[in-house]
From TrEMBL, chain A:
InterPro entries in the cross-refs: Metalloenz_LuxS/M16, MPP/UQCRC_Complex, Peptidase_M16_C
Domain of life of the source: Bacteria
Protein name: Zinc protease
Molecular function terms, GO-annotated: metal ion binding; peptidase activity
TrEMBL record, chain B:
SUPFAM superfamilies xref list: LuxS/MPP-like metallohydrolase
Residues of the Peptidase M16 N-terminal domain: 63-161
Protein known as: Peptidase
Peptidase M16 C-terminal domain location: 182-363
Organism field: Paucilactobacillus wasatchensis
Superkingdom, taxonomy of origin: Bacteria
Length: 418, 432
């Protein structure tokens, strides 16, 4: 059920008795800019640290803990050209905890969103400094996860010069010095007053009470976002290739292709099936031929991001096998393009996608995420229709989609401890 | 078939022991699309010295055999179990820990056929010299990948301090050298000894009819012949049960951006298995929450002094034959971190007194988190620890947790927290 709270602020309630927990997701969407990504990432950290009523981290943590072990927190994400700041809560249903728990959680979300620790137009300085340091450290530490590091390097290589998508959704170190406790108040005001807001509530709840509770939130009317949601970029004339050496036991070879097919477009289902055949499942060509048969890799997989048109392949290999692996990957891509795969494989991949989709309906956080995507992309598809679309994908569809793959970038992280 | 209804949690569990000794438990979930099943063998990486079934002398197999066996179970002479699950639209996987090996499946349809595939591939071994050789390449890559993961190195570095001469300090997958020695004969010997139905249990959660499901399994088992059950004889004795072998401190250099530190506390007390063991585990978990969770004064003080940050985590692990707690963070002040954690542990009794007012809140939060797990078929099934906790399931755990009093925390401190069991492992950025 959908309710408009004011212009640009919508509430969606899904009443179900399937779960013993309730979920609330409040999504603030805005067009990403060169300066707002890192600032919003830091803002998300400050919002979950303290508020006026709960001015220390411990005071807020104790309040959350008193709510029967509720999870209440924030995170940031990216959907195409949009940057999303999310406030999320997950907590035990009143029936299995105590009467009034849902109301108390919503009160706390209100406090966090409307009463952050801002006085005289500045965030509390010690809290700000500490969270700034923490964000800096955590961004630095991400480089220690080599699989993640290689994926980030590939993105940087793939996206066009000056593309905002080079900036990770959690921000970048070089932006941090430009952010102050005062400037972040500006970021906060924009978020709370101008962002497009979607609230999704799921659980065994009283719908009327939920609507009344959220009507109390002091959201002002705001304009709907007009900018195109999906990200597009021109093809690079020549593929970009780089390599780097680090003291590692396992090398990483990651490849990027452009595949300009977007979420819920006519070929979207065929793209999911194509990905499943090429590298998106344990039955896939990459998994079977690179990992299982040739024993060349511990992992070899592919993924497609349906909001920015990037298709990538990642492998963990021995440095000395790089040329062989790259060749073998190319063979798998060519095989899919020419329809060199069995009907059985395609059927199994389809069944696997449908199985994954249906099992996703049993995970409440997944259901609210899907609902949110539907609202943001203004698409809504019944489960049965989605499953039908997957079933209808033909070999010709898969070949058509695969033939649109354009090789764009290769990143090689060379390990020399072998 | 036994049936137990937990009224306050609105869940019912059904269980039946098959004639061959396999324990089957079913928890139906109304409204769910998925069915999750996990078949667990009471056998893990530390069970390397044992009496092979039908023999009268102990053998020691190379490190990593349990995990190797898990990988190799999927591959048969003329097919791969992955493909069979694929044809039935199911997801399947497996994992090995120190003391157990589990095979699992998740599916929305063809549940009967999927359960047959699960039981059949785990109960019909096929190992050949050539498939064993090939697997060494794949597992070798897996070991290498973990070697580059600083958090993994930190964890096993600490285990190397806590249990320097016990098998827990060795990677569950073994080492490149140890897996090179694995032969089909090793796999058959371990398989025959540990993969007996009486040493296994099957836990099913989801959209199923319990009576029908148990019938299916009985039919499947009736088609197979098993040797008379024997109880696997494993030799597992700690090198030094008093912990005189604990290495207090080691450090490692790696290419990382900030130092990482982990403080470990090895339990030197002997714990009964069964419900007492479960009670012990829950009490220690509450103790750690009261000392260190983000509602504690300790956490705020260390956080504000930048001795720890959001990467801070702690955990208590209790498995067959050993138990320990660990505390870790990325920090620019690794020495201060370990000093502070150790001093909080050593003054645990006073710490509980200071935080008494927090006890009910912390216990309620833990109860809430556990009730939340009832929404996850995986969590319900994976929580089952068999004999270790006397066959207790997640609902039993929730009931046991609700009964714990603050006095239990006071009692457990002198048993669990002993200075002899404390150790520190650091990973610091490599100097150029």
């Amino acid at each position: 059920m959908d309710f408009k709270l004011t212009d640009g602020v919508n509430l969606h309630v899904i009443r179900t008795t399937q779960f013993k927990t309730n979920q609330i997701l409040i999504n603030f969407n805005t067009v990403q800019t060169k300066t707002n990504i890192t600032a919003r990432s830091l803002l998300a950290d400050l919002i979950e640290t303290s508020t006026h009523k709960y001015p220390t981290q411990t005071a807020l943590a104790r309040q959350i803990s008193s709510l029967f072990g509720a999870y209440v927190g924030t995170n940031v994400a990216r959907i195409g050209n949009m940057h999303a700041l999310r406030v999320r809560a997950s907590f035990v249903n009143d029936r299995y905890s105590m009467p009034g728990l849902t109301d108390q959680v919503i009160d706390l979300l209100h406090e966090m969103i409307f009463h952050p620790l801002i006085d005289n137009n500045t965030f509390d300085e010690p809290t700000f400094k500490l969270q700034l340091n923490n964000l800096q450290s955590s961004i630095k530490s991400l480089d220690d996860d080599k699989q993640f590091y290689a994926a980030m390097q590939l993105r940087d290589l793939y996206f066009a010069d000056h593309s905002l998508l080079k900036i990770p959704s959690f921000g970048q170190l070089t932006d941090l010095p430009q952010i102050s406790a005062e400037s972040l108040v500006q970021t906060y005001n924009e978020m709370v007053n101008s962002d497009q807001v979607d609230i999704v509530v799921l659980g065994n709840v009283d719908v009327q009470l939920i609507v009344e509770q959220f009507r109390r939130f002091e959201f002002k009317p705001r304009q709907e976002i007009k900018q195109e949601l999906f990200y597009h970029q021109k093809l690079n004339k020549e593929p970009r290739e780089t390599s780097e050496k680090q003291a590692l036991n396992q090398a990483k070879l990651n490849l990027a292709y452009q595949l300009p097919i977007y979420y819920q477009e006519p070929d979207y289902s065929a793209t999911m099936v194509m990905n499943g055949i090429l590298g998106g499942s344990p039955l896939s060509k990459l998994f079977v031929n690179v990992r299982e048969k040739a024993s060349l890799a511990y992992y070899a997989s592919s993924q497609h991001i349906a909001f920015n048109g990037m298709f990538s392949i990642q492998t963990g290999i021995q440095s000395s096998n790089k040329v062989r692996v790259q060749h073998l990957i190319q063979e798998q891509v060519d095989a899919v393009r020419t329809g060199d795969f069995t009907d059985e494989l395609m059927q199994e991949v389809k069944d696997g996608i449908i199985n994954q989709y249906e099992t996703g309906l049993d995970v409440s956080s997944n259901v609210i995420e899907q609902t949110l995507l539907d609202k943001i992309t203004r698409t809504h598809t019944e489960s049965s229709a989605l499953i039908e679309r997957i079933k209808k994908v033909t070999k010709v569809d898969v070949i058509r989609v695969a033939s649109q793959l354009e090789f764009q970038a290769a990143y090689f992280l060379n390990g020399d401890l072998n | 078939m036994d049936e137990q209804f937990y009224q306050h949690l609105n869940e019912t569990i059904y269980s039946k022991k098959m004639n061959n000794g396999l324990l089957v438990q079913v928890l139906p979930k109304v409204g769910f699309h998925k069915t999750y099943a996990i078949l667990t063998v009471d056998f893990g990486s530390i069970d390397r010295t044992f009496m092979p079934v039908g023999k009268d002398e102990l053998v020691t197999v190379p490190d990593g055999v349990a995990h190797f066996l898990e990988h190799k179970m999927f591959e048969k002479e003329d097919h791969d179990a992955f493909d069979l699950f694929g044809q039935l639209g199911a997801d399947s996987n497996a994992f090995t820990s120190f003391t157990q090996t589990s095979y699992l499946l998740s599916a929305t349809g063809h549940i009967h056929e999927n359960l047959d595939v699960l039981l059949d591939f785990v109960q019909e071994p096929y190992f050949s010299a050539s498939t064993v050789e090939k697997e060494k390449g794949i597992i070798g890559q897996e070991i290498k990948m973990y070697d580059d993961d600083p958090n993994w190195r930190l964890y096993f570095g600490l285990l190397g301090n806590l249990y320097p001469k016990d098998p827990m300090h060795i990677d569950i997958a073994g080492t490149e050298e140890s897996i090179a020695q694995i032969s089909p004969a090793d796999l058959y010997a371990t398989y025959g000894t540990f993969y007996q139905p009486s040493n296994m249990n099957l836990f099913i959660v989801g959209n199923v009819d319990p009576v029908q499901t148990v019938d299916w399994i009985e039919q499947n088992q009736a088609t197979k012949r098993f040797a008379a059950p024997t109880s696997p004889q494993v030799q597992f004795e700690l090198n030094d049960s008093e912990g005189n072998d604990v290495i207090p401190f080691r450090t490692l250099e790696m290419d990382i951006s900030r130092p990482k530190v982990m403080v470990g506390l090895r339990g030197l007390d002997q714990i009964e298995s069964g419900m007492d063991g479960l009670q012990y585990r829950l009490t220690v978990e509450l103790l750690l929450d009261i000392l260190f969770d983000d509602t504690s004064d300790n956490y705020l003080r260390l956080y504000n002094n930048e001795i720890l940050d959001d990467s801070f985590s702690y955990n208590f692990e209790m498995q067959r034959g050993f138990h320990f707690a660990y505390f870790s963070s990325d920090t620019n002040q690794p020495e201060r971190f370990s000093d502070e954690i150790i001093s909080i542990l050593e003054s645990a009794t006073q710490q509980i007194e200071t935080a008494t007012s927090q006890f009910e809140n912390i216990k309620r939060a833990m109860l809430g988190r556990m009730i939340g797990l009832l929404d996850s078929p995986e969590a319900i099934a994976n929580h089952y620890s068999g004999k270790l906790f006397g066959g207790a399931n997640l609902m039993d755990e929730i009931t046991a947790l609700a009964a714990i009093k603050i006095d239990d925390l006071y009692q457990i401190v002198p048993e669990f927290v002993q200075s002899q069991g404390i150790s520190v492992y650091q990973i610091v950025p490599r100097r150029d």
